Amino acid sequence: MSSWWCEGAIFDLDGVITGTARTHFTAWKETFEQYISSRDDLSDESRRPFTHDDDYVPFVDGKPRYDGVRSFLESRGIQLPEGSDADGLDAGTVKGIGNAKNDSFRRIVERDGVDIYESTVKLVEELRDRGVQVGVASSSKNARFILETTGLLDLFGTVVDGVTSVELGLAGKPAPDIFLTAAERLSVHPERSLMVEDAFSGVEAGVNGNFGLIIGVARGGNHEGLRQRGAHVVVSDLAEYSIIEIEEYFRELA
After folding, report:
1. Which of 48, 79, 100, 146 is 20 to 30 A distant from 135 in Cα terms?
2. Measured between alpha carbons, how far is 149 from 144 in angstroms, rounded to an integer?
3. Could you tell me which residue, 33 or 221, shows the higher pLDDT?
């Protein structure tokens, strides 16, 4: 247990620790638009371009891969069979689209690398120095791959990701399952822990999990949306919120 009231800190990965939220958006846009362009039976509304603010943020961001496929397709009035794990894009299935997106994501990472938010890494190190247990909770099945690629894996006491969710049957965001599982693995109480998210669904998961401090990171300028969903603090970058302010927040809660 830490020497002050904050016991644990659970960080989302994409858009919080690494700049891979942009990579995910690029891969989703490429995949969805390729699929939609292959369908000549869709309405003009269903065929409009996939955008960050109108499509990625409300329907895909932060969700498990296949949940994001279903959610976006439903918003365009498109229904597809679930398909199989081996499907590709040409199968015209939910899993086929999700699998194609994952292939696109990995290609982009291998080509362009991964940006790291150094302000987040600094905060993680400061929390660890104070005895706070720190973990990662991500919907992505690529989370461990990204952490290994960036050399950041050893900073975290646990990683609960999309692979873990499948193995344990965890519900995706906005359910709090992945964050609560990370807290349990770190032996910390959610109400005495902070969590950091950039996705609307992730902030809602923090509220549903009763985390003591929910920090929203609004790199895309969606400050008000994160506040509306329950973030206690919203910043554009974690450099804006110091370890001293976190400590004061938890002392007031105590």
Report:
1. 100
2. 8
3. 33
